[in-house]
Amino acid sequence: MKFIHTADWHLGKLVHGVYMTESQREVLHQFVDIVAEEKPDAVIIAGDLYDRSVPPTDAVELLDEILFKINVELKTPVIAIAGNHDSAERLSFGSSWYKHSQFYLAGKLTNSFTPIQIQGINFYMVPYAEPGVVRQLLEDESIHSHQDAMKALIGKIEETLNPNEPNVFIGHAFVLGGKTSDSERVLSVGGSGCVGVELFEPFSYTALGHLHSPDAIHHSKVKYSGSLLKYSFSEAKQKKSISIIEMDEKGNFSHRYRSLNPTYDMREIEGYLEELLDPQFYEKERTHDYLKITLLDEGALIDPMNKLRQVYPNVLHLEKKIDLTDVRKKDSYQVIHSKKKSEIELFEQFYMEMTTAEFTLEKKEAMAEIIEKVLKGAEER
Amino acid sequence: MKFIHTADWHLGKLVHGVYMTESQREVLHQFVDIVAEEKPDAVIIAGDLYDRSVPPTDAVELLDEILFKINVELKTPVIAIAGNHDSAERLSFGSSWYKHSQFYLAGKLTNSFTPIQIQGINFYMVPYAEPGVVRQLLEDESIHSHQDAMKALIGKIEETLNPNEPNVFIGHAFVLGGKTSDSERVLSVGGSGCVGVELFEPFSYTALGHLHSPDAIHHSKVKYSGSLLKYSFSEAKQKKSISIIEMDEKGNFSHRYRSLNPTYDMREIEGYLEELLDPQFYEKERTHDYLKITLLDEGALIDPMNKLRQVYPNVLHLEKKIDLTDVRKKDSYQVIHSKKKSEIELFEQFYMEMTTAEFTLEKKEAMAEIIEKVLKGAEER
């Protein structure tokens, strides 16, 4: 039995203010071609189909188009779960109809732990859910962390799981020790959000979503497929792919990657402004890639972004390499106040990720006040 | 052949800041019971399934639940189109899967005018679309108004329509002369948005959505079903219902209503505060209805809303009956400046309807400035 494992499509994603939809469309068409060629018995999507609960309409249309091609035109069963970026309720709409054509979509976590059976393999779908939701669902007051929640859920599955059959777990979680990228949203503010890899021991294969690197963890049976595209510059050196698994009736499997290659790569370059604008240099470059450019120049430059965009239209981020001694000088205040600073910074990052709006000075001040109160309260307890 | 005609469910609707979801759920369960009892060959929903393009998640779950009961559990074909309140793209998601179980959902208007055939009747689905969208779709530069658009669309349908068969048109439009209510969103700012009833002549029956009264127009073959519930006090005296049509192979049909009865009605009452708060009065009243209360008292009253809500928990709107001579005095300024005043008022109404946010003084001033500029420009032309 052969299945494809993918995750973290993040349709509708904005990277530094630029919609990735066209690159997503391109790579998803490559994905459809791979499905047509590999003829798997199932395609698994382990969460974060969309980048947010209300994605832009062209992302909605793209997902509809791609899933229709795979499921209806290529007659391939699809098993998909919601991730932390998806709206469980919105994604669930219509799932009762889809299953008639073997498109199994789990948006909201339910109390039913019956697997989907395809060609002798049991697929357990566990969509992303907050620990509080799992606590309520399982009526288990002892559930507080993601670790507690996952342990309880797998405990439920184990009540009926037959260990002599091949069992595949499909989940969306941050497995302990996994390598993170800048484009994953933290699962827990204040807690680790992590779950231990040992929890997945009962399964022949665990198909995970959430971390964006295909080698976020190294484990023989628990794997991330990685995201569809690079969604942050911290992923610039990753190779994006999907995983192809062939499993026998005992749950033994082989695993290989097939890469996805968008026309425009996301990468970082470094140099002096003059050098980067020199045709001798850029003629050898893939100038339309999504770029983070680090300028080595010292002193002031006149409108460097505008000049660079004449040559590199998709510059997403520009920065100057700052002398380390400078940073130390500037940061002396920050270091002293590092505790307070880091909370507001964390929130700022979180806010911008959630809303893509600017975190203005007024907002910052209001939040700083709240954090101060909370910290004061914590000290007093 | 028997079919049910309904429209304007407006799931997720807020009336005076109160979600109607629970009343909608109640009435939709009555609707499901009627479907189970009548056993129609099809259920038609002529647009505005949701109240807005991104409805609240409980509205999404309610629609999913109800359509599943009707289409899958009761095995009744469903034909639904998007109205002006729906997001065509979001509503369309999954429609390719639904049609396998005879759930036909047209979100976006397409260039295909092939009818759905059920039991010898041809159902033509024409989801709501702006004239500009129709102009582009049909590549017909002469389309400017809703009348132009509808005429062109029906022209397209007529190219292949067989007048010897029973043909049903399903659309979402404002038919000329139709009686409006306060809860319908205007289709055209600046134009009438109307279409002539004569356009629908080629059809045996025209199942319309948009106007909320089941007798918005009186025509033997062109009909509104009316909305699911009363959504404004201007509808307080309407009787809400669904239409049951039985049609023969020649397109002749009988038409009858079945009423929908929510536990809490929406209605207006009038009286003196003291009288309304008197147990002798309110013990005979259905005090939990959604109410607009008009107070007859003169002079100041202390916190009347709060007092009234102790007895009538669902007061949605409170006003005082003002002496007509007072109004004339106050409005003398307005009458003189009636032209400018009415545009900003129209916009204010539109703004609050679209966003449910407050139209603050700053917003009003900014808009007044724009209107003034536009009017000045118009005078100069």
Automatic annotation (TrEMBL), chains A, B:
<keyword id="KW-0540">Nuclease</keyword>
<dbReference type="Pfam" id="PF12320">
    <property type="entry name" value="SbcD_C"/>
</dbReference>
<comment type="function">
    <text>SbcCD cleaves DNA hairpin structures. These structures can inhibit DNA replication and are intermediates in certain DNA recombination reactions. The complex acts as a 3'-&gt;5' double strand exonuclease that can open hairpins. It also has a 5' single-strand endonuclease activity.</text>
</comment>
<comment type="subunit">
    <text>Heterodimer of SbcC and SbcD.</text>
</comment>
<keyword id="KW-0255">Endonuclease</keyword>
<comment type="similarity">
    <text>Belongs to the SbcD family.</text>
</comment>
<keyword id="KW-0235">DNA replication</keyword>
<dbReference type="InterPro" id="IPR029052">
    <property type="entry name" value="Metallo-depent_PP-like"/>
</dbReference>
<feature type="domain" description="Calcineurin-like phosphoesterase">
    <location>
        <begin position="1"/>
        <end position="213"/>
    </location>
</feature>
<dbReference type="InterPro" id="IPR050535">
    <property type="entry name" value="DNA_Repair-Maintenance_Comp"/>
</dbReference>
<dbReference type="InterPro" id="IPR041796">
    <property type="entry name" value="Mre11_N"/>
</dbReference>
<keyword id="KW-0269">Exonuclease</keyword>
<dbReference type="InterPro" id="IPR004593">
    <property type="entry name" value="SbcD"/>
</dbReference>
<keyword id="KW-0233">DNA recombination</keyword>
<dbReference type="InterPro" id="IPR026843">
    <property type="entry name" value="SbcD_C"/>
</dbReference>
<feature type="domain" description="Nuclease SbcCD subunit D C-terminal">
    <location>
        <begin position="264"/>
        <end position="354"/>
    </location>
</feature>
<dbReference type="InterPro" id="IPR004843">
    <property type="entry name" value="Calcineurin-like_PHP"/>
</dbReference>
<dbReference type="Pfam" id="PF00149">
    <property type="entry name" value="Metallophos"/>
</dbReference>
<dbReference type="GO" id="GO:0004527">
    <property type="term" value="F:exonuclease activity"/>
</dbReference>
<protein>
    <recommendedName>
        <fullName>Nuclease SbcCD subunit D</fullName>
    </recommendedName>
</protein>
<keyword id="KW-0378">Hydrolase</keyword>
